[in-house]
Amino acid sequence: MERVKIILKSGKDQSVRRYHPWIFSGAIKKIFGNPLEGDLVEVFDNKDNFLALGHYQPGSIAVRILSFEQREADSAFFKEKIMKAVACRKYLGLTESEETNVFRLVHAEGDDLPGLVIDYYNGVAVLQIHSVGMYRMRNEIANLLKTVLGEKLTAVYDKSEDTLPYMSGIRGKNEYLLGGTLPLTVMEKGLLFNVDFISGQKTGFFIDQRENRELLTYFTKGKDVLNLFGYTGAFSVYALKNARLVHTVDSSGPAIDMADENVRLNYKNDKRHRAVKDDAFEFIKDIKNKYDVIILDPPAFAKHNKVLSNALQGYKRLNMKAIEQVRPGGIIFTFSCSQVVTKDNFRKSVFAAAANTGRKVRILYQMSQPPDHPVNIYHPEGEYLKGLVLYVE
Question: At what angle do helices 308-325 and 343-357 cross, to 10 degrees?
Answer without folding.
Answer: 40
